[in-house]
Amino acid sequence: MPRDPTRSIARFLIDDGGPTAVEYAVMLAMVLAVVIMAVSSFGTAQDNYWGRIDSAMRDHGIN
């Protein structure tokens, strides 16, 4: 028995499961972008911090 294509199309247009999944994927991508930027910024700050300590120790003859 062949399926009625209009019924399938109507069901597809009414179903909101797909858009919800897309919305969650977009939110996840945004959260991950913020986390990556924060970790990158934190890593740069730590690198600068330990670099200053290293320079100060070398200036005082401590290796």
From TrEMBL:
The chain crosses the membrane at residues 21-42. It comes from the Bacteria. Keywords: Membrane, Transmembrane, Transmembrane helix. This is Flp family type IVb pilin.
